[in-house]
Fold:
Amino acid sequence: MSLILFNKPFQVLCQFSAQDGKATLADHLAMPNIYPAGRLDYDSEGLMLLTDDGKLQHAIAHPDHKEAKVYLVQVEGVADAAALDKLRAPLNLGDFVTQPCQAVRIAEPEWLWPRNPPIRQRADQPTSWLAITLQEGKNRQVRRMTAAVGLPTLRLIRTAIGGISLATHPLMPGEWMAVSPQHLTP
Structure:
């Protein structure tokens, strides 16, 4: 049984099959019979888990298992206490209400790699960084949450799933490594 950690680069599809000339996992991982355990949007970066074990894939990806996921988010604007309180509380996004989560303002991580292409810079618009930890993970949830509190997401990087983190398993975008599935539990 294999568990692969992969640092998904910006603008890579979370699938192996080609689509519309966009980069896919196949451009970075040449391993047969492994499958993503969960997804990241095309325009998001960071930690993905892949496995050749169907039960493990289900255990990681299924919403009932609620592995904590940590995201670093660069937003347009300054995240004040009121915005952070709104992010932490259940937030009505129209089609669902989020679960309570952790959200804190952080300094830009020194270890973070530059994005290619870089995000747009606007001299008259400050940005800030947040660390958001979710127990759920609905489609484009973090982006929708920050937009709902007036802080559009500029950059989104998943850094941890359960007990597996890019802090303890440093990988640059496009790099991968195999680990034991026991690392999932903190």
